[in-house]
Amino acid sequence: MRSITLNVNGIDRPVPLDDDAMPLLYALRDTLALKGPKFGCGLGQCGACTVHVDGEAVRSCLLPAAEAVGHRITTLEGLGTPEAPHKVQAAFIAEQAGQCGYCANGMIMTAAALLARDPHPTEAAIRSELANNLCRCGAHERILRAVARAGA
After folding, report:
1. Where residue 99 falls among pLDDT bands split at 50, 70, 90?
2. Domain residues for 94?
3. Which pLDDT tens digit goes with each residue over 101-121?
4. Which domain CATH number covers 8?
């Protein structure tokens, strides 16, 4: 077993690695105890595991942890704090956009990356960006309102 160092939420963290193919998601949840990114499909199709890698939204279930060395990883926990939430987190709270909450990580992380690129996206741009994040409980309209609010 070897150890790698991952920069997660601005802190260098050692992560034991016995398999170079171990997904970043496992390192974040199982080793570093970060519960923002969720295991959904394991195939990069649902978005529940989305994190930022150097500011870009990435499916952490598909990225080997070893390939994340040297990059800045931001999880939901590092996006904002309870005292000072990121504007997307604050908008989700204001719009009551989380119903079951399982998709919230992916929706928030994807929306935050969109707003970093395009501070005032159109509704069409928001819909397009979030199209590959699955939500089974039907909170889509509130999620769209929250992202639009954060971009206003």
Report:
1. confident
2. 87-151
3. 889 999 999 999 999 999 999
4. 3.10.20.30
